[in-house]
Amino acid sequence: MKRYMIALITIGMGITAANAADESTIAAGKALNDKHCVACHGPELYTRKNRMVNSKPSLFTQVQRCETNLKLQWFDEESQSVTEYLNKEWYHFK
Ligand code: HEC
Predict the structure, then answer these.
(1) CA 84, CA 8: separation in Å to the nearest integer?
(2) Contact present, 93 and 59 (Cβ < 8 Å)
(3) Cα 77 to middle of ligand 1, angstroms
(4) HSE-CB of 35 using CA atoms within 13 angstroms
């Protein structure tokens, strides 16, 4: 019985950790975006009718393109978290 309880608690913690990681990824993406990415354009570019980006992979590519132009030298994880943030807020790709 005791062992069973411990197993349940462990599963519970795993689920909580997964959700927290998701939210912290988006929070990290928002922080990076707010710091580095709002000088030239804001959300109006992401929601305009003829926006360039039309899929999640192309959003990632465009984030990297702007980031490279700015010589920020982000890791893929950082570009990925900004991609997740922009997608959640504006693009809404599956
Ligand atoms: C030096 C100015 C500048 C900065 C700073 C900048 N961008 Fe851009 N960004 C551009 C230009 C120019 C375009 C292309 C606009 C066009 O073609 O009309 C663009 C386009 C984009 C698009 C595509 C919009 C669409 O049409 O769907 C995304 C996404 C994007 N930028 C993300 C970022 C991110 C993330 C950062 C921060 C790392 C960033 N940008 C910082 C200049 C900048």
Answers:
(1) 31
(2) yes
(3) 18
(4) 10
